[in-house]
Design brief:
The protein has four helices and 22 strands. It is α+β, with helices and mostly antiparallel strands. It has four domains: 2-28 and 268-342, conserved putative lor/sdh protein from methanococcus maripaludis s2 fold; 31-40 and 184-265, Efflux pump adaptor protein, beta barrel domain (Elongation Factor Tu (Ef-tu), domain 3, Beta Barrel), CATH 2.40.30; 42-74 and 158-180, OB fold (Dihydrolipoamide Acetyltransferase, E2P) (Beta Barrel), CATH 2.40.50; 76-149, Orthogonal Bundle (Helix Hairpins). The longest helix is centred in the N-terminal third of the chain and has 37 residues, at 76-112. It is rod-shaped and about 145 Å long. The two termini are 32 Å apart.
Protein backbone atom coordinates (compact mmCIF):
# COMPACT_ATOMS: atom_id res chain seq x y z
CA UNK A 1 0.00 0.00 0.00
CA UNK A 2 2.79 2.38 0.96
CA UNK A 3 4.60 1.63 -2.29
CA UNK A 4 1.69 3.05 -4.30
CA UNK A 5 1.93 6.56 -2.77
CA UNK A 6 4.68 7.91 -5.12
CA UNK A 7 2.69 6.77 -8.13
CA UNK A 8 -0.40 8.53 -6.82
CA UNK A 9 1.60 11.70 -6.24
CA UNK A 10 2.84 11.63 -9.82
CA UNK A 11 -0.61 11.09 -11.25
CA UNK A 12 -1.70 14.70 -10.74
CA UNK A 13 -4.87 15.97 -12.29
CA UNK A 14 -4.40 18.30 -15.23
CA UNK A 15 -4.11 21.92 -14.12
CA UNK A 16 -6.88 24.18 -15.31
CA UNK A 17 -5.47 27.31 -16.99
CA UNK A 18 -6.55 30.04 -19.32
CA UNK A 19 -4.66 30.63 -22.58
CA UNK A 20 -4.57 32.92 -25.58
CA UNK A 21 -3.81 31.97 -29.14
CA UNK A 22 -0.90 33.89 -30.64
CA UNK A 23 -1.93 35.94 -33.65
CA UNK A 24 -0.06 38.36 -35.83
CA UNK A 25 -1.75 41.75 -36.07
CA UNK A 26 -0.92 45.09 -37.64
CA UNK A 27 0.41 47.37 -34.91
CA UNK A 28 0.84 51.10 -34.68
CA UNK A 29 3.28 52.97 -32.53
CA UNK A 30 1.83 55.85 -30.53
CA UNK A 31 4.24 58.79 -30.49
CA UNK A 32 3.72 61.95 -28.46
CA UNK A 33 6.50 64.53 -28.26
CA UNK A 34 6.86 68.19 -27.41
CA UNK A 35 8.50 70.63 -29.78
CA UNK A 36 8.80 74.32 -30.52
CA UNK A 37 7.04 76.60 -32.99
CA UNK A 38 9.52 78.01 -35.49
CA UNK A 39 9.37 80.24 -38.57
CA UNK A 40 9.61 78.39 -41.87
CA UNK A 41 11.96 81.03 -43.27
CA UNK A 42 14.25 82.90 -40.89
CA UNK A 43 17.01 85.43 -41.36
CA UNK A 44 19.40 87.04 -38.91
CA UNK A 45 20.33 90.69 -39.43
CA UNK A 46 23.67 92.23 -38.51
CA UNK A 47 25.73 95.39 -38.99
CA UNK A 48 28.49 95.13 -41.61
CA UNK A 49 30.76 96.94 -39.19
CA UNK A 50 31.24 96.74 -35.44
CA UNK A 51 30.22 99.36 -32.91
CA UNK A 52 28.07 100.24 -29.92
CA UNK A 53 24.32 99.81 -30.44
CA UNK A 54 22.55 103.16 -30.12
CA UNK A 55 18.99 101.98 -30.74
CA UNK A 56 16.91 98.90 -31.48
CA UNK A 57 13.67 100.25 -32.90
CA UNK A 58 11.59 97.04 -32.70
CA UNK A 59 10.41 94.55 -30.09
CA UNK A 60 9.82 90.80 -30.20
CA UNK A 61 6.68 90.03 -32.21
CA UNK A 62 6.61 93.33 -34.13
CA UNK A 63 5.66 93.21 -37.79
CA UNK A 64 7.88 95.39 -39.99
CA UNK A 65 7.67 96.59 -43.58
CA UNK A 66 10.44 96.52 -46.16
CA UNK A 67 12.68 99.59 -45.73
CA UNK A 68 11.75 100.16 -42.08
CA UNK A 69 14.60 101.02 -39.68
CA UNK A 70 15.33 98.15 -37.30
CA UNK A 71 18.47 99.20 -35.39
CA UNK A 72 21.30 101.74 -35.31
CA UNK A 73 24.83 101.84 -33.96
CA UNK A 74 26.67 104.99 -32.87
CA UNK A 75 27.87 106.86 -35.96
CA UNK A 76 30.19 109.61 -34.67
CA UNK A 77 33.27 108.09 -36.26
CA UNK A 78 31.50 107.49 -39.57
CA UNK A 79 30.20 111.07 -39.67
CA UNK A 80 33.69 112.43 -39.02
CA UNK A 81 35.10 110.21 -41.75
CA UNK A 82 32.41 111.47 -44.14
CA UNK A 83 33.22 115.14 -43.42
CA UNK A 84 36.92 114.46 -43.88
CA UNK A 85 36.23 112.71 -47.20
CA UNK A 86 34.08 115.62 -48.39
CA UNK A 87 36.84 118.10 -47.50
CA UNK A 88 39.44 115.98 -49.24
CA UNK A 89 37.31 115.82 -52.37
CA UNK A 90 36.83 119.59 -52.37
CA UNK A 91 40.61 120.07 -52.15
CA UNK A 92 41.35 117.61 -54.94
CA UNK A 93 38.72 119.23 -57.16
CA UNK A 94 40.38 122.62 -56.69
CA UNK A 95 43.73 121.02 -57.48
CA UNK A 96 42.18 119.38 -60.51
CA UNK A 97 40.79 122.66 -61.82
CA UNK A 98 44.14 124.43 -61.36
CA UNK A 99 46.07 121.61 -63.05
CA UNK A 100 43.59 121.54 -65.93
CA UNK A 101 43.94 125.31 -66.50
CA UNK A 102 47.74 125.04 -66.39
CA UNK A 103 47.71 122.17 -68.87
CA UNK A 104 45.51 124.08 -71.30
CA UNK A 105 47.64 127.21 -70.98
CA UNK A 106 50.89 125.31 -71.58
CA UNK A 107 49.35 123.60 -74.61
CA UNK A 108 48.33 126.97 -76.12
CA UNK A 109 51.74 128.50 -75.43
CA UNK A 110 53.51 125.52 -77.01
CA UNK A 111 51.42 125.93 -80.17
CA UNK A 112 52.59 129.57 -80.43
CA UNK A 113 56.19 128.62 -79.59
CA UNK A 114 56.09 130.64 -76.37
CA UNK A 115 57.08 127.79 -74.03
CA UNK A 116 59.15 124.63 -74.04
CA UNK A 117 57.93 121.10 -74.56
CA UNK A 118 59.39 120.14 -71.16
CA UNK A 119 57.17 122.72 -69.43
CA UNK A 120 54.19 121.44 -71.43
CA UNK A 121 54.91 117.85 -70.43
CA UNK A 122 55.32 118.80 -66.73
CA UNK A 123 51.90 120.53 -66.78
CA UNK A 124 50.33 117.45 -68.41
CA UNK A 125 51.86 115.21 -65.72
CA UNK A 126 50.49 117.43 -62.94
CA UNK A 127 47.06 117.33 -64.54
CA UNK A 128 47.13 113.51 -64.84
CA UNK A 129 48.08 113.23 -61.15
CA UNK A 130 45.24 115.62 -60.22
CA UNK A 131 42.78 113.44 -62.15
CA UNK A 132 43.93 110.36 -60.23
CA UNK A 133 43.74 112.13 -56.85
CA UNK A 134 40.23 113.38 -57.61
CA UNK A 135 39.09 109.86 -58.54
CA UNK A 136 40.60 108.50 -55.34
CA UNK A 137 38.89 111.20 -53.27
CA UNK A 138 35.53 110.43 -54.92
CA UNK A 139 35.95 106.73 -54.12
CA UNK A 140 36.86 107.50 -50.49
CA UNK A 141 33.79 109.75 -50.22
CA UNK A 142 31.54 106.97 -51.49
CA UNK A 143 33.17 104.55 -49.05
CA UNK A 144 32.51 106.98 -46.19
CA UNK A 145 28.88 107.35 -47.27
CA UNK A 146 28.48 103.56 -47.38
CA UNK A 147 30.07 103.25 -43.91
CA UNK A 148 27.58 105.80 -42.55
CA UNK A 149 24.73 103.93 -44.24
CA UNK A 150 25.97 100.69 -42.65
CA UNK A 151 25.30 102.08 -39.18
CA UNK A 152 21.58 101.45 -39.80
CA UNK A 153 19.86 98.10 -40.35
CA UNK A 154 16.82 98.25 -42.62
CA UNK A 155 14.23 95.54 -43.18
CA UNK A 156 14.85 94.01 -46.59
CA UNK A 157 11.38 92.41 -46.75
CA UNK A 158 8.12 92.44 -44.84
CA UNK A 159 8.85 90.33 -41.76
CA UNK A 160 8.08 89.56 -38.13
CA UNK A 161 10.63 90.06 -35.36
CA UNK A 162 11.21 86.72 -33.63
CA UNK A 163 13.65 87.93 -31.01
CA UNK A 164 16.34 90.47 -30.25
CA UNK A 165 19.84 89.07 -30.00
CA UNK A 166 21.44 92.24 -28.61
CA UNK A 167 20.49 95.27 -26.54
CA UNK A 168 21.16 99.06 -26.77
CA UNK A 169 24.57 99.94 -25.33
CA UNK A 170 26.05 96.56 -26.24
CA UNK A 171 29.19 96.52 -28.37
CA UNK A 172 28.83 94.15 -31.30
CA UNK A 173 31.32 92.94 -33.86
CA UNK A 174 30.99 93.04 -37.61
CA UNK A 175 28.37 90.55 -38.86
CA UNK A 176 27.32 89.66 -35.28
CA UNK A 177 23.55 88.87 -35.35
CA UNK A 178 21.39 91.54 -33.74
CA UNK A 179 17.85 90.52 -34.71
CA UNK A 180 16.16 87.33 -35.90
CA UNK A 181 13.32 87.83 -38.36
CA UNK A 182 10.66 85.53 -39.79
CA UNK A 183 9.87 85.96 -43.47
CA UNK A 184 6.38 85.14 -44.67
CA UNK A 185 3.58 83.51 -42.70
CA UNK A 186 4.66 79.84 -42.80
CA UNK A 187 5.11 78.06 -39.46
CA UNK A 188 6.95 74.87 -38.53
CA UNK A 189 7.14 72.76 -35.39
CA UNK A 190 10.61 71.37 -34.63
CA UNK A 191 10.93 68.11 -32.66
CA UNK A 192 13.90 66.10 -31.42
CA UNK A 193 12.82 62.51 -32.04
CA UNK A 194 14.71 59.56 -30.46
CA UNK A 195 16.59 57.63 -33.12
CA UNK A 196 14.95 54.30 -32.21
CA UNK A 197 11.53 55.84 -32.84
CA UNK A 198 12.64 56.79 -36.35
CA UNK A 199 13.82 53.24 -37.04
CA UNK A 200 10.75 51.54 -35.59
CA UNK A 201 8.27 52.52 -38.30
CA UNK A 202 7.65 50.83 -41.65
CA UNK A 203 4.88 53.01 -43.05
CA UNK A 204 5.55 53.85 -46.69
CA UNK A 205 3.22 56.85 -46.73
CA UNK A 206 3.69 59.91 -44.56
CA UNK A 207 2.11 59.37 -41.12
CA UNK A 208 -0.75 61.54 -39.94
CA UNK A 209 0.57 64.12 -37.48
CA UNK A 210 -1.64 66.16 -35.17
CA UNK A 211 -0.34 69.30 -33.46
CA UNK A 212 -1.90 71.01 -30.45
CA UNK A 213 -0.97 73.50 -27.72
CA UNK A 214 0.25 71.94 -24.48
CA UNK A 215 -2.52 73.52 -22.41
CA UNK A 216 -5.29 73.08 -25.01
CA UNK A 217 -5.18 69.54 -26.37
CA UNK A 218 -8.60 69.92 -27.99
CA UNK A 219 -7.27 72.61 -30.34
CA UNK A 220 -5.69 70.60 -33.15
CA UNK A 221 -4.29 71.21 -36.62
CA UNK A 222 -2.76 68.68 -39.03
CA UNK A 223 0.90 68.76 -39.94
CA UNK A 224 3.22 67.14 -42.46
CA UNK A 225 6.85 66.05 -42.36
CA UNK A 226 8.81 68.81 -44.11
CA UNK A 227 12.39 67.89 -43.25
CA UNK A 228 14.28 65.13 -41.43
CA UNK A 229 17.85 65.86 -40.43
CA UNK A 230 20.33 63.27 -41.76
CA UNK A 231 22.42 63.62 -38.59
CA UNK A 232 21.92 62.14 -35.13
CA UNK A 233 22.78 64.36 -32.19
CA UNK A 234 25.60 62.45 -30.45
CA UNK A 235 24.77 63.98 -27.06
CA UNK A 236 21.04 63.17 -27.00
CA UNK A 237 20.69 60.40 -29.59
CA UNK A 238 17.87 62.32 -31.30
CA UNK A 239 17.07 63.34 -34.86
CA UNK A 240 15.64 66.78 -35.61
CA UNK A 241 12.33 66.51 -37.48
CA UNK A 242 10.61 69.60 -38.88
CA UNK A 243 6.82 69.43 -39.18
CA UNK A 244 5.02 71.97 -41.34
CA UNK A 245 1.73 73.37 -40.05
CA UNK A 246 -1.06 73.34 -42.60
CA UNK A 247 -2.69 76.22 -40.73
CA UNK A 248 -1.70 78.41 -37.73
CA UNK A 249 -2.40 77.22 -34.20
CA UNK A 250 -4.55 79.84 -32.45
CA UNK A 251 -2.72 81.60 -29.64
CA UNK A 252 0.73 80.21 -30.48
CA UNK A 253 3.68 82.13 -31.87
CA UNK A 254 7.39 81.67 -32.45
CA UNK A 255 9.16 79.84 -29.65
CA UNK A 256 5.98 78.49 -28.01
CA UNK A 257 5.78 74.83 -27.00
CA UNK A 258 3.60 72.47 -29.02
CA UNK A 259 2.69 68.79 -28.71
CA UNK A 260 2.81 66.50 -31.73
CA UNK A 261 1.15 63.09 -31.85
CA UNK A 262 1.26 60.38 -34.48
CA UNK A 263 0.47 56.68 -34.83
CA UNK A 264 2.73 55.34 -37.59
CA UNK A 265 2.33 51.76 -38.78
CA UNK A 266 5.18 49.51 -37.59
CA UNK A 267 4.24 46.22 -39.30
CA UNK A 268 2.84 42.87 -38.15
CA UNK A 269 3.74 41.47 -34.74
CA UNK A 270 2.67 38.77 -32.29
CA UNK A 271 0.84 40.61 -29.49
CA UNK A 272 0.34 38.94 -26.10
CA UNK A 273 -1.24 40.29 -22.90
CA UNK A 274 0.98 41.18 -19.94
CA UNK A 275 -0.43 38.22 -17.98
CA UNK A 276 1.38 35.75 -20.25
CA UNK A 277 4.86 37.05 -19.44
CA UNK A 278 7.16 35.32 -16.95
CA UNK A 279 10.91 34.71 -16.87
CA UNK A 280 13.55 32.00 -17.04
CA UNK A 281 17.30 32.05 -16.46
CA UNK A 282 17.76 33.53 -19.97
CA UNK A 283 15.31 36.39 -19.55
CA UNK A 284 11.70 37.00 -20.55
CA UNK A 285 9.65 33.86 -21.32
CA UNK A 286 6.13 32.46 -21.71
CA UNK A 287 4.48 29.07 -21.10
CA UNK A 288 3.54 27.42 -24.41
CA UNK A 289 1.03 24.53 -24.52
CA UNK A 290 1.64 21.47 -26.71
CA UNK A 291 -1.78 20.89 -28.30
CA UNK A 292 -1.15 17.14 -28.74
CA UNK A 293 -0.16 16.24 -25.17
CA UNK A 294 -1.38 19.22 -23.18
CA UNK A 295 2.11 19.60 -21.64
CA UNK A 296 3.62 23.07 -21.16
CA UNK A 297 7.15 24.25 -21.86
CA UNK A 298 8.86 27.46 -20.78
CA UNK A 299 10.09 29.27 -23.87
CA UNK A 300 12.21 32.43 -24.12
CA UNK A 301 10.86 35.30 -26.22
CA UNK A 302 12.31 38.37 -27.95
CA UNK A 303 10.39 41.48 -26.97
CA UNK A 304 9.95 44.20 -29.59
CA UNK A 305 8.37 46.70 -27.22
CA UNK A 306 5.95 46.99 -24.34
CA UNK A 307 2.64 48.83 -24.18
CA UNK A 308 0.44 49.60 -21.20
CA UNK A 309 -1.43 46.28 -21.48
CA UNK A 310 0.44 44.07 -23.94
CA UNK A 311 3.80 42.89 -25.24
CA UNK A 312 4.86 42.96 -28.89
CA UNK A 313 7.19 40.11 -29.84
CA UNK A 314 10.09 39.93 -32.29
CA UNK A 315 10.27 36.15 -31.97
CA UNK A 316 9.93 33.08 -29.75
CA UNK A 317 6.28 32.34 -30.39
CA UNK A 318 4.71 31.29 -33.68
CA UNK A 319 1.30 32.34 -34.90
CA UNK A 320 -1.42 29.93 -33.77
CA UNK A 321 0.40 28.60 -30.66
CA UNK A 322 -1.39 28.56 -27.30
CA UNK A 323 0.22 30.63 -24.53
CA UNK A 324 -0.86 30.41 -20.88
CA UNK A 325 -2.34 33.68 -19.65
CA UNK A 326 -3.67 32.64 -16.19
CA UNK A 327 -2.50 29.92 -13.82
CA UNK A 328 1.20 30.13 -14.75
CA UNK A 329 2.33 30.39 -11.11
CA UNK A 330 1.69 26.63 -10.60
CA UNK A 331 3.39 25.43 -13.78
CA UNK A 332 6.62 23.56 -14.35
CA UNK A 333 8.04 22.10 -17.57
CA UNK A 334 6.02 19.06 -18.69
CA UNK A 335 3.00 19.88 -16.50
CA UNK A 336 -0.23 18.74 -18.11
CA UNK A 337 -2.86 21.45 -18.38
CA UNK A 338 -6.38 21.71 -19.61
CA UNK A 339 -8.03 24.88 -20.86
CA UNK A 340 -10.79 26.27 -18.69
CA UNK A 341 -13.14 26.61 -21.64
CA UNK A 342 -12.71 22.88 -22.43
CA UNK A 343 -14.05 21.76 -19.06
Amino acid sequence: MVSLLPCMALAEDPLVVQAVRAEQVETRQHLSLTGEISAREMVQTAFPTGGRIAEIAVEDGDRVKAGEVLARIEKVQQEQSLRAAEAQLAATRAEYDAAQDADRRQTALLERGATTRAARNAAADRFAAAVARRAQAEAELQQARDALEDTVIYAQNDATVIRKLAEPGQVVGAAQPVLELALGEGLDAVFNVPEQKMLGTTEAEEPTIILSPIDRPNVQVPGFVREISPLVDPATGTVQVTIGLEEPLPGLSYGDTVRGTSQPLEGRSIVLPWSTVTANDQGTAVWVIDPASGAVSLRGIEVKRYTSDSVLLEGGVEEGELVVSKGAQLLYPGRIVVLQEDI
